[in-house]
Target: Transcription antitermination regulator
Amino acid sequence: MTGVERLATVVERLRQELAESRAASDDRALVELAKGVLVERLRCGPAQAAEQLARLAENAGITQLELAVDIINEASGDQFGAIATAADAPDRGAVVRLRKAESGALHADDTQAVARSLFDHALAPLGATAVAIWSAGADSSLTLVGHAGFGVGEAERWRYVPPGVVTLARRALSERDAVWISDLSPSEVPSIGSGLPGRVAVPAGTGGRITGVLEICWPHPVEPQPLSVRKQVEALAELSAATLDITGPVGHVVSAPSELADLADGLLDPALVLGPEIAADGTLSDFRVHHVNNRFSDLAGRTRDAVAGKLLLEAYPLIAAEGNLFDKIERVHATGEPFRAERMTLSTLIDEVPITVTTSVSITRHGVLVLLVWRVQDEAARLANLLQHAQRLGRIGGFEEEPLQGKVIWNSQLYALYGMNPGEEPVPLADITEHAHPDDRGSLNGFLRNVLHHHRPASTAFRLQRAEGVIRHVRVIAEPVLDSQGSLVAVRGAYQDVSSQHWTEVALSAVKDQLAITAQEMAERNKLTLQLQQVIMPPTHPTIDALGLRVAVRYRPAAQEELVGGDWYDAVVLPTKEILISVGDITGHGIKGATGMVALRNALRGLAATGARPSQLLQWLNLVARHLADHIIATAICGIYDPATRVLRWARAGHLPPVLIRGGDSEFLPELRGLLLGAMAEVSYEEGELQLDPGDTLLLYTDGLVERRDMPLDECLDRFRMAVRGGEKDLENLLDDLLANSESNTDDDTCIVGIQLP
Model:
């Protein structure tokens, strides 16, 4: 063995002995802390406490270290204690490791030692292979202040991450929440520790103020972790935050540092120095105004003394109701990222009346304090800016001239309207006719006579001919300014480019003419559709009273001609001496709906002559709707009644369920499985059977009878079922009453088919 090898062996042995010594020191610290708790609880001496600890551990069958951790968890009531006593608490070994990590971190001399303690005691047992502790700068930069598990070269390369570089730690800082990444490799997000795909980055801070980020790495993709592990990681992040806060403990600020107060007093705008107010549970509840600068001007007119020392939400409650400024202050305090806005609304209450002003705002963090600066925008400048934008948007150019002195002043919009450069000589009002269309000069002469000779305000419209040949439609308004003697001293006015309005009116006139023609064509088309529908689907159908069954029909077309739809029905005796009964509703209105209704109704009647069952008939009808018609989508019910057995076989294609009235009660038939007609090419339909008894009445109907715009369909159907319960026994009168008293308000077609076995 060479001398270098012997030296390496000695160094490794010493490193191992040092690690063991540190572990033993952490163990002793926890045991001694538990003894102190027993001294306080049992009011005994240290020797008695040690004896009691040993006896209790032996009786419980656990080590003194494990018992010591249990005692500390029960007495502390801190985050680690909550983890140990939660319903999903980790095993005892994990709880012990957390306390050892805490002990090592609290006795560490720097953040590097904290990272090593967290890794050795708590993270390595979770399978992690590396950990990094980042310090967050006020400029959103990140500095690596502690690490374990990374090589020296890797840590040196990532010593500093400048602002703007998107890393996992930067994302956690921005979102202010833990970010778990199962596998970092596909995202290609740069981060320390290449080849370590499993990641979590947790903001580290207390009292609502984030001072850094704890980043943990695994050598393999990480599956979603249980809640107990997530809580352990968050607790370790909070533990690491203690070494990152170099400004002192949060919540102990008594007054603003003189340097920050001097900085605020040196500003030319109102400024407040705010300190965080921490609630009992450790969360940020508000900010207190620690200093008010000399330039302070309260929005509500209060003095500096009336605001200094108050809570921010107490002084300005509306900043929380707006969900605007307070959120920005809280975020700057948490992350350290400055916030600036050129235009922001601030509100306050004056005699219970909210007053809103527009300001520019700057918010920066200095240690644990926040500096808030605002500048109320000058009202005159705001109005001038507003007027300039209004003139630009309204295509308005203003002018003022003094005819006796020959002075003419134009604004930039008027130069643009005339197509002239701002340096050119403006056109006096008296020379306006030289730039107008010849046909408009007569009306302009009358306009000039009223303004310049009769000294009356006037306005007129004309066509402005520009030098490049462009013609603009313009309206000019002028008002004379007179002295005390009634003499004309000035003329003020404005030009407005109304070319867009003129051509819009021309186009609108043409559209109106076209709409009139189209409306007439639509009226004729709707009339034809209604006539077609009434021929094929008359409002009443001759009552079928054959083979021991009564079938009656009522049909009411849509209230408006343009809404004529595709409701259809059929009731016919088949060659097999069975009775076909059907009801359907086609989507769409007008000619398409009416013709689609005719196609399906006639197709079903022809297919029924084959003697097929209702389910097969709907399968064939679905093919007709999808392939042999113009992409029809429809609902339908098809039933075939056999007089010999008094059995009605039926199937449905997305239609509303029939209602059976029997013995004074009413109920819906089962909602058999069946898709809309035309929706899919391959579909099957479930078939049901109903044994009719003497006195039974069955109602088939379309949605125009029951549906309301202001009520769910299920509720509409239930009201309809209750309405027919114990009602009129005569079939004809029952259908008339239902049609007359329908509560539907959809203006849709309505169809009812009633079947009654006397």
In short: The chain has 22 helices and 27 strands.
